[in-house]
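Predict structure. Chain length: 321.
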Amino acid sequence: MNSILEGGGYCKCCKLALTVMLIIAAALYSEAKPFIDYLALKKDTSCHHCQVFRNKDTALYLTGTGPMNAAIKSAVFLATEPLADTDYFLNIGVCGAATEKERNNILLGTPVLCNKIIEHASGNTYYPDVLYKHPFQEGTVISSYQFMTWEMVNAYFKDISPPLRNTGLSSMFFADMESSALYQSVSCFFKLNQMFFIKVVSDYISPAAAEQRLVTSKDVSQLLKEQVGNILNWLEDIMASTPGRPAEFSEDELHYLTALSEDFKFSVTMANELKQYLRYYKLQKGEFIPFTEILRENIPRSVKSKAEGKKYLDYFKKNLL
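Prediction complete.
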């Protein structure tokens, strides 16, 4: 499977998606590499705020480690993406399993679908919607700005209220650094039933943790490589049942948007702005090409820089809105 759904794509400059899109977030390249290879994603060099890899219906971005990076990189990246209600979000990465005597019940490499996320610093709890049938282990994930130790986990559960403590180490429990921040940031852009947090167990949080071998980047990639097909095939079934996004622009209009953005040397962000202005104009007044051609009569065709293009983008905005 080289793509999630066939028959879709992006307008090259405007990045207007024509099908159901999958957005994937990973903290580290070692976590992302199996997905990049499996989906044949190519690096998007136009993105400067974070590393991004794409094909026609998938965009994967790297957040870096820690909650601050996860929240900021996600907000900046998603704010520049032309998202729609039909799109899906997947956070993929590794986690530690707090199991003590239950260690043998959870193997390294086990994929865990998070049904509950606890923010260690605040104690706030978030509940991703798990509405679809799935083949994965479900579990609670606690997110912390630092790596969780067995002592930290136990101290945390001693301090919290009994009802929450009873749902902790008595059941499968996992730890990572980004889930909570991602949930809070990404939920501003996606519906809860279209956000998935899947973590693959890479190590154990237990009294015997000191005896464990250090987990390397190669180990992480290998663990995720073994699960990438199962995860993406499951998502493909969900996405295949989602009605495709109706094209907001005709094919001629898409070609026109691409040409216009290239002529005026618009950056990706500027092209997205233009797309929003033209979408609004089309909703209000219908066809926009005749009007934009009139506007172009007052603009020189030989735009030499993005800075100059920004001036003409402001001109379009003033007249289109």
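Summary: The chain has eleven helices and ten strands.
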